[in-house]
Amino acid sequence: MVYTDGSAERGGKGHGGWAAIIRAGFDIVEIHGGAKASTVNRMEIIAAVVALEILPAGCAITLHTDSKYLRNGITQWIDGWKRNGWMTVAREPVKNADLWRRLDTARDCHQVTWRWVKAHAGNPSNERADELAKFARHSITKGF
Q1: CA angle at residue 53 from 110 to 136, to 5 degrees?
Q2: Active-site choice (16, 34, 64, 66)
Q3: What is the tally of structural domains in the chain?
Q4: Which entry of 5, 32, 64, 73 is annotated as an active-site residue?
Q5: Which of 6, 16, 17, 73 is catalytic?
Q6: Could you say which of 55, 67, 84, 132 would form a disulfide bridge with 19 (CB–CB 3.0 to 4.6 Å)?
Q7: d(CA 40, CA 49)
Q8: Does 6 qualify as catalytic in the annotation?
Q9: Mapping DSSP to helix (H, G, I), strand (E, B) and coil, where does residue 84 land?
Q10: Which of 25, 120, 122, 143 is an active site residue?
């Protein structure tokens, strides 16, 4: 089980943080990081990318996210983007294409089930991922 979240300041732009909680049996690993200039959508994707990249190849993973952008992007839109040369149906370049490509590669190493969870609805692992993403964002803001 993996729970991910992203955070960014100033209406979704500015300093950003991401986090993932990985649960395997009785083991729990929490990872987080951030960037000085980012968006909440980039942080949401990065959280999933890093979680999938650090797991050994061949894992069966249920990845939980409160981002419909992440879930829809990876389950509904990405194949069309790839067919269209990383262009949207409106013939615009796909935003965050660098991260979508990295996520596409990372997911191919595993069997991933993508689950959307409602944010701030009391799911302990989702709430913890939110706390860690905000901590990471604040760490970037404070300079440590």
Answers
A1: 135
A2: 66
A3: 1
A4: 5
A5: 6
A6: 132
A7: 14
A8: yes
A9: coil
A10: 120
Read off the pTM.
0.95
Structural tokens at position 131: 């706390």
Mark whether 64 is an active-site residue.
no
Active site includes 15? no
Q: Is 98 among the catalytic positions?
A: no
Task: Write down the catalytic residue from 33, 34, 44, 73.
Answer: 44
Please name the residues in contact with 91: beta carbons below 8 A apart, sequence gap of 6 or more. 84
Nearest-angstrom CA–CA distance, 41 and 5: 10
CATH number at residue 8: 3.30.420.10
Question: Tell me, what amino acid is at 9?
Answer: E
**Is 130 a residue of the active site?**
yes
One-letter amino acid at 141 equals: T
Could you say which of 15, 17, 64, 130 is catalytic? 130
Question: Is 44 known to be catalytic?
Answer: yes
Q: What is the mean pLDDT of each run of 10 residues along the chain (144 residues)?
A: 94 88 95 95 98 97 98 98 96 98 98 96 95 95 73
The reported pLDDT for the residue numbered 13 is: 76
d(CA 69, CA 61): 19
pLDDT digits (tens, 9 = 90+) for 110-121: 999 999 999 999
Domain that holds residue 9: 2-142
